[in-house]
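Below sits the subject:

***
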Amino acid sequence: MKRAFFITLNEVRLYLQDKGDLAFGLLLPVLTFALMYGAFGGETMFKATASIVNEDKGVYSQRLIQQVDDVDGISIDLLTAEEADTKLDRSDILLALFIPSNFSDTLVDGGQAELVFKQRGNGGLEGQILASIIHSVAAEINQEFQVLHQVQSNLQGKQIPEGDIELTVQNLLEEEHRQPTVGVAEEITGGSSQFINQYLPGIITMYVLFSLSLSAMTIVEERRRGTLERLLTTRLNAGELFFGKFLATIARGFIQTLILLALSYAIFQIFTPLSFLACLVVSLIFTAAAAAIGMIIASISRTESAANWIGIVVTMFMVMMGNTFFQAAEDSVMATIGKVSLNTYANKAYTAIISQGGSLGDTWSQLAVMAGVAVAGLIISRLIFRAVPGSK
C-alpha cells in the first residue's frame, strides 16, 4: 500500500506543477467567489444621482435640493434646462426634476407649488425610485407648511409676531426630525456575512465536482496511451495503482477546498478554529465521495471526450438539483430528485456548521451518506476498472 501513496504524491506534484490545472482548480474558484461577492454581496444601499434644474432662486427650492441631497446614497447634479433637455434626448439621463421659477414665492403666498418631472419613457427603475424619494421630500415640506399655517391660524389675534411663530414651529419640526416619535430600524439581510454563508458551500462543491472531469480525462488518457500498462509491469499491482489514483483525486479536490476555506477564514472571519476543522472534515469526506464518482466515470469511459462530457453532465445535475445556490421546498419534486445529489448532503453539512453554529455531530447523517457513496463508488469503480484489458 506504500506504493499507492507514492503514486498519490507523484500525481499531486504533477498537479501543482501544471499551471493550467492550477488556474482552473485554484484561481478560478477564487475569482468566481470574488465576482459573485461583488455582484450580489456588496453594498446594499441604493445609490443614484438626481439631475435637477433649479429655475427658482428662492430659499425653499434650495431647501428642497438640500433635503434631497441629505438622503443617504443620493447625490445632486445641477443642470441648466438646455443641458437637461440635451441629456434626455441622448438618453444620458432618463429623468430630470425641474423646479419652476415661482416655486418659493408660491409657497410663501400659501399657494400650491408644482414640481415638474421630465423623463424618457418610464424613467427607468432608478428614475422611478428617485422620483419617489423627491415626492417624499416634497411631501415633508408640504406638511411643514400645513403645520405652520394651522398654527398661525390658531394664534391669529393673539398679537404674537409671525416671525416668532415661524421660528418656534421650525425649531419643533427640526427636533422631531432629530428624534422622531416613530423610529424606523433597518435590518439588512443578504449582506456580506449572509452572502458568504450562502454561496461559499456551493462554490466549493461545484468546483470539486468540476475537477472530476479533469481527473477522469487524465486516467482515460493514460490508459489509452498505455501508461497504466507500463506501470503495471513494475512491482506495482492494479489495486495499488487504482487506489493511488483515487487518493490523488481526493488530494486535488481537498487542496481546492482548503484554499477557499482558508481565504474565507482569514478575510471574512466566518469560522472559529473548531468550525474550520469541522468544515475540513466535511470537505475531506465530500471529496472522497466525489473522487469515487470520478473513478467510476474514468472506468466506464473509453475516450477523453466521453469522460469530459459525462463529468460535465453529472456535475451540472448535482449542482442544479443539490441546493447549491438556492433552497428547494422540502416537499417539492426538485427536493426529492436532489436526494441523489452529493451537493445536497455537502451543502447541508456546511450550512449546519457555518451558518447555524453546529458541530460534526449535527452533520452525522450527511457525512454517513457521503462516506457510503465513497466506499460504494470505490468498490464499483474497482470492479469496472478490473475489467479493463491490461489492468488486472
User: Anything to note?
Assistant: Confidence is low (pLDDT under 50) at residues 188-192. DSSP finds 15 helices and four strands in the chain. The domain at 48-178 is CATH 3.40.190 (D-Maltodextrin-Binding Protein; domain 2). The two ends are 17 Å apart (CA to CA).
